[in-house]
Design a protein that fits this description.
alpha/beta, Rossmann fold, seven-stranded mixed β-sheet, two-stranded antiparallel sheet, 7 helices, 39% helix, 22% strand, disordered N terminus, binds S-adenosylmethionine
Length: 218
């Protein structure tokens, strides 16, 4: 069994969100150190959130893979500095047959993501390009789940992830306090089944889990 995750960089357990193994915790620490090292040059996370990186970014991202623990192949779109894509890859690092694809159009961030996967010994592929074209030309096999955080409106996320969800992939999107308005707007153009989970790190935010997504006929 794993031990409760330590959620601040000074090494004190500030809150328990779930069990992760010692190896996973070590990989997460390597990743956090890397984000902080590259932060001055790349601005990977909002500077105001640096002191809370373990809660605001790491713990928040743990919820992604936990949403679909059975999913083996993930696509994280608009990965930026790797939240949640790299964290998903770290959680799956010792799980044979798993793979995390990350699609990121910014070349420098894509280079960082490759470094993060290598340094943490995680399985993944970074696609340095626009989601619209990478997804349309996808030749990397079936996808079980799509994730996104801080990328676009729900309606646009459904559009961007359609090449995967049309073939049966599920989706999990992090959404802030305005989530209900986005759900209402997206409902006009899309059918979907949704499970709404209160974020473990922010009661105002939601993890929205979608399946059976399809475009409504005009
Ligand atoms: C606000 S950041 C969020 C990054 C990360 N998911 C997070 O939560 O920290 C959005 C990222 O998506 C990337 N992005 C935006 N539109 C994109 C597109 N059409 N294709 C690929 N990447 C895109 C940007 O370069 C940026 O790194």
């Amino acid at each position: 069994m794993g031990r409760p995750i330590v959620l601040n960089s000074s090494g004190q357990a500030v809150q328990n969100y779930g069990d992760v193994s010692r190896e996973t915790l070590e990989r997460l620490q390597i990743y956090v150190d890397l984000v902080l090292k590259w932060q001055p040059a790349q601005n990977l996370i909002a500077p105001s959130t640096i002191p809370d990186i373990w809660t605001r970014h790491v713990a928040d991202s743990l919820q992604t893979q936990w949403s679909y623990p059975e999913a083996k192949t993930w696509v994280d779109v608009g990965s930026g500095g790797g939240f949640p894509g790299v964290v998903t890859a770290i959680l799956l690092a010792e799980d044979p047959g798993t793979h995390v694809h990350m699609i990121e159009s910014n070349q420098r961030k894509a280079a960082f993501l490759r470094t993060a996967l290598r340094e943490t010994g995680s399985n993944g592929t970074v696609h340095a390009g626009r989601i619209e074209s990478v997804a349309k030309e996808w030749q990397h096999g079936p996808v079980d789940a799509v994730s996104a955080r801080a990328l676009a409106s729900l309606d646009l996320l459904f559009q961007l992830s359609e090449p995967f969800t049309a073939k049966g992939a599920k989706a999990v999107f992090h959404k802030g306090q305005d989530f209900q308005r986005e759900v209402n707007e997206a409902s006009a153009r899309w059918h979907f089944d949704m499970i709404e989970k209160i974020s473990l790190v922010d009661p105002e935010s939601r993890m929205l889990l979608f399946s059976n997504i399809s475009n409504r006929p005009e």
